[in-house]
Every structure is written in C-alpha cells, then in structure tokens.
Design a protein that fits this description.
With 263 residues, the protein is an alpha/beta fold. The chain has 7 helices and 11 strands. The chain folds into 2 domains: 165 residues, Alpha-Beta Complex (Spore Coat Polysaccharide Biosynthesis Protein SpsA, Chain A); 90 residues, no CATH class.
C-alpha cells in the first residue's frame, strides 16, 4: 500500500512546512500550487515534495488535479492548515501492514479544530468527518464553489480510521468573520442559487437564531465556552448572510425576467 500525500496551496509559507512534515511517512508528497508569491514552493521542495503549478480552477478541480498527477494509487489529501495526529498516523501505519484484500476502498477521518486557544469538542465542528484516504480508481473530488469532498463510486467500501486530523482554520475570530464575508457566504449563496434554491423574508429573519441554537445548544457548542459561543454566533452570521445574498440573486433574476417581458 503506497500512498501519495497531496496538498494544494496558495501563499501558504506559514503552514506548508508543518503540513509536509506531518505526512513525511507518505511514499511521496505532491504539492499543487496556484501561483504563490511567497516562499511556499521553495519550502515544499526543501521538505522533499514534488511541486506542480496549476492555475486555480476551483477547490475540487485542484484536488482532483493533484490526485491525477500522483504516482501512487492510494491518495491521502491534506489541506495546508491541517496536521496528521500521532494516533491517525498509527492507524494508517496499521492499514499499510494489512494485505490488500482486507483494505476498504476509502477511509473517513475525524477532523478536530483548534480555535481561540482550545481544541473544539462540540457545535458543528466535531466530529467533522472527512474522506481523505482513498483509492483514486474508486472515487474522485466533486463540489462546486465550496464544501468539496471525495465522492466514491457505487459499491465502494468505506470505513472510519481512528485518530484525528488536526485543523488550524483561523488565526482569530476577525479572520473567521472576514472569510465568511468575503468567501464562504457569497460562494454558498451562488451555489444554492445555481442549484435552484430560493428563500423568503421569513427564512432570512429566522435562519440566524435557528442556526445559533443548533450549534450552541443542540450540537453542544456550550461545552467549548467562549469559543463555542463565538463559533455559534459566526455560524448564525454566515447563515443570515448566505440567505440575504441568495435573496438578492433571486430578485436580480426576477428583475431581469420582468425587463425581458416588458421589452
């Protein structure tokens, strides 16, 4: 069982060394960079990675490009702000000791985030199960705009690995808020719109409080104290902004349709 670890990057000089070191056990490391202007590529080369350059096509497409250019059949996909825990590394080592007929076609891992100085236990953030170890003949990356994931072929067998994938998503809540405002909410609204989703004034008014209650109360975010409260509050902001932007998109569509009819 030979494994290619794949990482996609853009200006990840602060993260790429630790990311590469956490998958040093892999048989190769493939870094696909989309035009970094910092030292990302040079640091990756220092860490023994094979670095490829590819203009940014989108998250799913870039991760699929990395898998297709990997030497080995087994892919372990890592984001630059993630690290493989010792327990997860041990679980993967145990898999590599098994005979091929005992292996599944893909494996989920639980992702645990470090936020506001603590490891998050609740809310919608844990366990954040991700399919990251898989045979590339049995699946591939899909997803428009946001929330890309590996979609396995029909009949593929998928199991869960022990050990967490450690995630360091934001430097602080200000960066978290900025990413919601500039990337996550606009992209999510566009995706929903293109999938035919529409919203209402009532949904816009209620989605924020409902999301907060789900994250902080129903999903146990209160166990994470101030960090859990902040996550729930920003989740509510994300939901509200997403649906407000969706409302704007659908109204623009209606205005355009009325204009075409009037002319």
């Amino acid at each position: 069982m030979k494994i290619s670890a794949t990482i996609i990057t853009l200006n990840e000089a602060k993260n790429i060394r630790l990311a590469c070191e956490s998958v040093a056990w892999a048989d190769e490391i493939v870094v696909v960079d989309s035009g970094s202007t910092d030292a990302t590529r040079e640091i990756a080369v220092e860490c023994g990675a094979r670095v490829l350059e590819n203009a940014w096509p989108g998250f799913a497409e870039q991760k699929q490009f990395a898998a297709e250019h990997a030497e080995h059949e087994w892919i372990f996909s890592l984001d630059a702000d993630e690290r493989v825990s010792d327990e997860l590394k041990s679980s993967i080592a145990e898999l590599r000791a098994k005979s091929a007929e005992l292996l599944a076609d893909g494996y989920y891992v639980s992702r645990r985030a470090f936020y506001m100085g603590r490891w998050i236990r609740g809310g919608d953030w844990y366990p954040d199960r991700q399919l990251r170890l898989y045979q590339k003949a049995c699946g591939g990356w899909q997803g428009a705009y946001v929330h890309e994931s590996v979609q396995m072929n029909a009949g593929a067998r998928v199991e869960q690995l022990q050990g967490d994938l450690l995630h360091y998503p934001f430097a602080d809540p200000l960066e978290h808020r900025r990413m919601i405002d500039e990337r996550y909410a606009p992209l999510a609204a566009r995706k929903s719109f293109e999938q035919g989703r529409r919203t209402s004034r009532f949904e816009i008014a209620t989605i924020g409080p409902a999301t907060f209650m789900r994250s902080f109360i129903l999903k146990g975010g209160f166990r994470d104290g101030l960090a859990g409260f902040t996550i729930a509050k920003l989740a509510a902001h994300h939901a509200f902004l997403k649906y407000r932007l969706l409302w704007e998109l659908q109204n623009s569509e209606s205005d355009a349709a009325r204009h075409r009819t009037s002319t």
